[in-house]
């Protein structure tokens, strides 16, 4: 009588190479074998490794970030067969809890080197850097960014159901067209299927080889299933409505974040961690048609950290880039400028730009589309909660520049 | 003894042609004569006409929207000389209240025709349309969009100080370069100076003519001074920090909104109204250098309408456009898709797409940059507050499609 | 077409003696003549004088508070006949707005002398005192209590429908029994009907005389109709469900407050003001039976000033009084102790006890019943929002005692 | 390098009789031996049994509640010596997390029989009853009260430092005086020291015997140290400032609640559970004098479940009791009436009064002192969050009475 301890649908062993763990995989493909079955209506716990599979250490050097092997990421837990789920259904995922693993109470935020991964501001900040965050209950703080402390809005960066062969084929086609059309650009614009370091759970070598050829990378999120959407508010208590494309849904989850700012601007920008997520799964039959749904929708949970609206400082940015060039209604350019405005402001307290770049990536900053119709300037804003600092950062308060130490850098 | 009734720095006469009112102007230029002086530290009331200067009527036809004369907009109240303000200072604008004019308790939301103004979704919705909103205290509702009612987050769409000659010259140069470089595009990408229908307050004819040649249009907002930033949260109790570029600051304000959604997607998308704003002005000497400020910053007020986080439905959109084309990290494309996802969802209650397009423009929807680093897909979200509807729009609730009437259209 | 300016159901003339204004009254009685009629579903504006009818001035002496004539209070506007309302119905009162009168942008908070009115802490603070508050848009501040400023949670202290003869008779009987049974106490425990200074609107002299004999005082609130409930959250956007006891409901309203703390501890404790309230009236037929309602219920509005939960300091108090005596589960004793704990804390910044007593009466403090079952100690708490102070009052911050001036006192 | 797993200052063994566990105790006394030492600045985890020490089972009978042995309660974990703490200091307790024990994901709410424990409404509801709550991540629901589900605001009901001999003597004196003075009352008004079932940790038999004679019961909370204050908002992220009365502070904690309503009206009214609390301890030297502190103060955490203000229904109650008798300014009577008003309202959905009584005890209802100066009626309010119900309980929504099953009762 009474609820028993919840079932673990998967437990991870952090002492093993993630590539050897049968309940992990690092590509999206309909044929990755299920690693378990979950009933419609069931609540289970699912453990996840951090997205890099343990490539990053709790230390004061960013060499590991600089040299990270991105062909291996992200290690997701799954796929799980959800009983009764059929294509056209919607899988309702209620996130009842997310926690770090008890014996690993820390996470990391990284800035990738421009030549290996990059990030939103890599033109200005091309070097690898890192901050380690210690978890104290609901709070976190970092020896690499003194003076800040905040409650986590803990969430999975990635969750979704497997693509059908048709959906996968659309992904591969449109992304390869982009790669082709952008071949003149100096940067990687999309990640084509990558046969190296494929992990496809318990797939046979043949199947694994085919998945390497066809399987979609876990970067980026995609409209048809969500995936790597990096939405900071998919936290405790939220409900996500996911399109189902294959029988049994084949649900996977990973890339757990202790906290993230809107945009996750440094790319490895959330506070990345290994952890455990508790989910209740329910199937809404024929849900895609009923909800008119093409992409996931969600409802946030009720326990988000709440600062009063008057406890944020908001910065504004427009579609004029750092060289003074006018772009046409470009919200991406605007958000980059908004981020830079915030960096410029926080400098006055003694932080280095890299420290701030790391901080804006992982602290619960609010990134808004403010105006997107006044040609040619989109206006975006970034709201920085003042109460995460242990000193007063309001514009009217006295300023004292102090020694803020340094974040971790690569040995170069 | 005791505070007297606040001083009106300007009162508007809605029965007159706004082009004849000496305390209005519709271009940005350093030489527009001041229409009054405000002390450092003073609190004043400033009345404003609606941004079109009364071109739109409280009726059931969108002919006025279709035929709006955009060379006349926006009518701003000002400029005001703020005593002691000098270039390099920051003008601190505390918005102590904003109210509609007592004898005009209504506003409008419009969709411009694609060929005259357009909007964020004009490829899909090219026709002119309109909704009239009645104000009942803090709430508004519309006979053109039944079933919704919400409290206004009332704010000015435009406020800022005049550009210096140097700043103005930068604006004109970079925007004309954009116009030139985009000449192949089928749409207007920016508004060059426009000598027709110039209103420059009490300027002499000669000066007015020069302002017509040089003056920047009030569309768009610009990083150097803010201006038309259309930030829905610049509401009661907020504090805005504005760069000062000319002696006396030459502050102007207008384009009052009873409410607006993030993005203001239909362009004439807020609930536009005439009204009165109460502002306290203070000068922060040498503020631009002290705050490291290149663009305005602000702190929201404490009385924003608050729904619990769990009372929003969030829609997701990615950088894959409606034709299935993959774009590279384009948050603008993503936000357009996000908007469409929301329209598709609300259809099931009987609303027409035009009604929803109007609604998302003016209701307090939250538009977020979620992820902007997972190449090639930016992910944006739009949060729709469920409690503005008088029926249950949550995904799990039963749906009954009902007759929602129609918004106003042009007679075509 | 379109909404016209709202109808004023009553406008007050502050230059006249309120006792001469036909749309005011200061007793509860079923026979006070209606001063107007309001349709079921109608929205109207109703102006109110301050509760004392102008006895208190905007000056620096509390002589007026000391000598206030309490036989005159409260001046309520009404009663209004609400069409279709019958006994047993519920009158739904949606408060769409409340504002101070434009030409009287100030209010007052008073501490009554112990021998004339008294208050919650009159044993410790027996002297009359006063603070004047200036309104700047949504904010208020006082020259008598420097260092604080906050947004009003503006509301009526009193609203309700007239009692039936039966209800009135119950009130008179039970309150007179209390007076009799408490005759040994040294204080006034309830206010019996008072023939002096009766104002009964347009009642004939005969009727007025009878109302003086029978009419219930406007102090206190009573369970059968609400009345003087002094609930700070009956603010803009709230909906109150009021029992109807007489045909036409006979609704009255008054005692407008710019702000009030939970408890309104100094009795004249809110920021009292003259103002205008906008109400939408609707009748719920047979509502009392349908809702199982014996006392009013209400739903707050969405625009309350919001501080984050972590921006309050909470003080605790228990049922042990200031003399060390243990009381049995007495929440009133506990709340008095809670108030004293807060006063003791704020002393360290330089405020006098009287200043703090005034402040806790009118600032938006949260008064909670925490535990009421652990015999013999009830525990109550008072939450003080830190952000109303312009210095940091958190327990860990450095303290600097400064000259806080003085509140107004009576001349001897 | 990097934070290690947090230290457990105490782990409980639920398979053992709590009276045999050396790190528990159930009386307040300065001489109970410390069960461990915690450094100033240290973060530790502390496990607690439920307050009854396992007397209540996860089943469908309330016999255990009816027959509970209250001489045994509450079992607290501690006392802990906090290094450097001295009398006059303040112990700052930051609650970084509270969680149920992983292998016991359930809790209970009980109504004690009037003759054994009683509760706030025992005159109306004298029978023993019980509801079992299952925990699903942050949420809980009960098979005994269908239709509701909510996120826990998880907190300790009891925490505090040991009394000094002087403080203990004050407690015993004033409470025994109350018992004497109330000997005519038909109910137990306070709990005198009770030698039966004393648990004093590792105390010798002699010491234990003395503690039984002198030690204060854990019911109630007391102003000098807090203790059993049952404040629902002492949840994750909150900071409590506790007076220190003995060298080393001798801190104890227990009575963990998954959720509680303001007042905890049924006495065993929170969702009682065994669990683990993570605390950071710091000592503020000479804090009592510096803060002017006589009773604990606290600052809530930032992650409280948040409903919008407009998502509560508030009920009002006054100092007129259920027999129609007028009391003088009695907030306790008023809050009892407020509770009854809420019960009467919820009946219409099919709940029994006992189910509602249980629900109001443990759901996050807001209990406010509204007005406490309008003689003779105190007015209190209770806010019921609508969103904890899976149907619409707003006054205007259609009502369907359904079969709500039953809570657990005693076999009688």
From TrEMBL, chains A, B, C, D:
<dbReference type="GO" id="GO:0016811">
    <property type="term" value="F:hydrolase activity, acting on carbon-nitrogen (but not peptide) bonds, in linear amides"/>
</dbReference>
<dbReference type="InterPro" id="IPR004304">
    <property type="entry name" value="FmdA_AmdA"/>
</dbReference>
<dbReference type="InterPro" id="IPR054833">
    <property type="entry name" value="FormamaseFmdA"/>
</dbReference>
<dbReference type="Pfam" id="PF03069">
    <property type="entry name" value="FmdA_AmdA"/>
</dbReference>
<protein>
    <recommendedName>
        <fullName>Formamidase</fullName>
    </recommendedName>
</protein>
